[in-house]
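Lecture 7 notes. Example A: sequence first, then its structure tokens.
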Amino acid sequence: MAREYSPRPLTPGVVTIWYRSPELLLGTKHYTPSVDLWSAGLILAELLLSVPCLPGETVIEQLSLIVKLLGSPASDDITALSAMGCPDLIKWRRQSLAQGRVNNLERRFLTESSKETVAFLGGLLRWDPRARWTASEALGKGRGKFAAEAERWWKESPREADKDLLPTFPEVRNQKVAGEMAYRGSTKDLQETSGSKGKSTTRPTDLDQQANGYVFDFGGDGADTRASKRHKHR
């Protein structure tokens, strides 16, 4: 959410339209933190597909993409959205809502993931905000049915990365380059302190040629390989 949650009326335009929940798309100003769980589900879907899951350009198109993915909302879902005071719900039902569509989550994601992943997405992507998993349930916390389903997904392989390895994994080449740069810096300080002048005759090392992770092969033992000057024929 874009701001701290409170029961007062809030703006529905809080996130990019691709990650906006149905109640936000339908204009409600009284929503709950469940809108964040919807967005989290779409981010997970995007990671699985390597492309945005629901890239609509307008509100109507976005709602149509949701219907194609989750199927048409049931009568209980419509009742829940109506109770939230969605001002655009009636107009959308009359003009644009496709009836009889089935849920396609498993069809779209099972080939890219597992049944536990599809169940996890299904817990986050629901028309009824009250039926969506809470943040605690999505983390597998508690003793409820939903928490147990989420916990099975968290225990799948590959497991989550260790916190000490985030945000990036340590690489040997980065450590070598960093050490060499520190060594060159200390050598430069010694040269300036001793008042040395003239060009340095130090030969480049392998690590000098691996700056920023790129290897440059100039041939030979590091000697000057510039082409010799050509003489003009008279």
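Example B, a different protein, same format:
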Amino acid sequence: MGQFMALMPRDHDWEAGCKVLHEYGDIFVERALKYQESWRTRGADVGGKIQDRYVFLQELAKQITDPKELRNQLLGILLVGSETTASLLAGCVSLLSNRPTLWTKLHKEAVDLGIPNNESVKAFTSLNYVINEVLRLYPILPVIGRMANKDTSLPVGGGPLGDSPVFIPKGTMAVTNTYALHRRPEVFGIDSDEFNPERWASMKTLGHWDFLPFGGGPRVCIGRESRSLPIYPRHS
């Protein structure tokens, strides 16, 4: 929408919530920057004691000195490290809660596979089908937006057939609607709005850009390979 973004209605409660979150994050950003300044000048932390443990924020502060950028990087890690798993778990519990037969099947397979690890989880086909289906119907990031910092173009999407380039002027927000992308009947079938984990048994020819729960390209989410481990059903 470019310059017309300013005309969009504003959610003041959301903005107030962001302000609280930013102010809280700024406390730790300030500490990290003070620590790095102390390290550079005295070779020790603020209290005079050398710290040998790894602290992610302090490592970031070695490379980033702008407080706002440092805060944004920190909040990004907090979001993808906790909220994504919580959202996926909530989706799994919600969709499995009224499907006792499927839940019983998953539990039995979990018992047979034993203590979970990366290899056993990869072999847990039914669970991976369920996770893929939950991520398809309710992607963690249903809408992803990026603002162009210079004039650029998209390779396709323009013209009568949608196969021509599209000019993207500087300041334009380009949005990917993952929610709609994952519900295309021409890709996932006429029941694309329904929860059907078994569809993944026949999705061998799925296009690379048809299913994007973790994004794609050089900035694809690094957690995509371990998505199943936190969801693995625990049993006594």
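Note on Example B: The chain has a mean pLDDT of 82. The two ends are 54 Å apart (CA to CA).
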